[in-house]
Amino acid sequence: MTMQNMFGVVLWSDTTAQKAVIWCEDQGDLAFYTPEECIHEAPPLDAGDLVQFDVTVTQNVRKASNPQLLMQSHSPDLPNKLKASRPEAAPEPAKAEPKPARNIIDLTKYLDAAIGVQGKIALPV
Fold it and tell me: Range of 10's domain?
């Protein structure tokens, strides 16, 4: 099990249970955060917060730990934008036709805005 440092945006959180789902900078699987995986007391996380965290993969599930809040409410509209970009469910066509391209939202534009504010964030190239 390898630990990797990652940047991401919180898509969903439950402040009472201190749980969150984080969209990762590498566009891979989402990371799931629960406080028992932390070595220090973590800040409360809300949807849209820009965070830096450690990520490990356990049984094919990404787990986030030790989140650090980089910017609160950095992208509060991101969860709604992702929902809006989801293609509508439609019945499959009788013929095999090419599927239309999906709307893809690039996480790097959200991270780029934070770089200018934070100044010290170094993203891998």
Answer: 4-76+103-118
Give me the mean pLDDT over the 90-99 stretch: 60
3-state secondary structure of 112: helix
Q: Could you tell me the pTM of the whole model?
A: 0.61
* DSSP string covering 64-88: EEEEEEEETTSSTTHHHHHHHHSPP
Q: Among 3, 4, 7, 2, which residue's Cα sits nearest to residue 120?
A: 7
Q: Assess if residue 26 is contained within a domain.
A: yes
Number of structural domains in the chain: 1
- Closest-CA residue to 16 (of 39, 45, 36, 52): 45
For residue 95, being part of any structural domain is answered with: no
User: What is the domain-level CATH number for residue 26?
Assistant: 2.40.50.140
Q: Note the pLDDT of residue 9.
A: 93
Residue 97 covered by a domain: no
pLDDT of residue 125: 41
Could you tell me which residues are beta bridge partners of residue 61?
A: 58
